[in-house]
Amino acid sequence: MPGQLSERMEAMGVESLRFDISASRALKSAKELAAFCRGREIDVIHAQYPAENIVALLSKRYYPRPNVVYTGHLTIDGGAKWRIINRIFTPKDKAVIAVCGSGRDALIRNGVCPERVRVIPNGVEPNEKPRRDLSARASLGVGGDEFMISCFARYSPEKGLGFLTDAAAKLRGLTDRPFKCVICGDGELFGEVKEQIARLGLEDCVVQAGYRTDTAEILRASDLYVNSSSSEAMSFALLEAMNEAVPLVVTELDGNCELALNEDLPCGLAAPYGDADAFASAMLRLMEDGELYRRYSENALARVKRDYDIEKLAQKVLESYK
Fold this sequence. Notes:
Residues 22-127 form the Glycosyltransferase subfamily 4-like N-terminal domain. The protein has 14 helices and ten strands. The protein has two domains: 17-119, Rossmann fold; 137-307, Rossmann fold (3-Layer(aba) Sandwich). Helix 2 (26-40) crosses helix 3, helix 7 crosses helix 12 and helix 10 crosses helix 13. The two termini are 33 Å apart. It has helices at residues 4-11, 26-40, 50-59, 79-89, 101-109, 137-140, 161-174, 190-199, 215-220, 236-243, 254-260, 276-288, 290-307, 310-320; strands at 44-47, 67-72, 95-98, 117-119, 147-152, 179-184, 206-210, 224-227, 248-251, 268-271.
């Protein structure tokens, strides 16, 4: 079935190819990809995940012209099978891009050829100034005077949405200030988290907004953005929140801390994954400390402009294609 990206590309008049990346069909898909590239004289294949990278490298057997570049977005242990596969295949990549230091370390642990790895972080197009706009709150059931905490995530185990719900319960016990924690996303644990919200009596302060396409508008209406993951490289959503001058509370993962805890432009606080009390206390601090909040808000956008300008980073990616 077509995915959202291919549907958007079709609407823009951009041709795309969809193929099966399962192991049993890898060679067939590699041949299809090679034929597609040959017919269009394509010079570069940029893979975004491990299986796609293998299919791209296999396609060079049938059409050797394209350079293959692979970006690793995961920090999990791929296991012995992937260590072997990566040791065999990744020396053939033109470059392997890690989006943060912990991502680089994870790639190397998973058998990726160290000589191919370079760090190029994710980026966004910097805003000139904050674009505060509360209009998205109405559709989410959030009042204009409520402190709005946002999180964009799949309902999958590593995103820690059950942990975030526990932290919201702790936060409610720490403050009389009205707040709403708005979770945007869908996935297999949606129902489980819904039951947890009901069990903890949090229906008045935790909103399951489902899948949303208006995330930029939601960020402009937000006071705080949180990342509760147990595993993360560098979250685009964190960068997008920073670009709207929204301070962060994150779990103590390298990619998260690289964004939130920069030495000269800090823009958020961090707490250990699983420690709901510490996570709630971090959220409370940014709810109550107006001076710290203002400083982190200013730093967030300044950091994007300095370190995560998509034009500058895209140039580095283009250089890796050559």
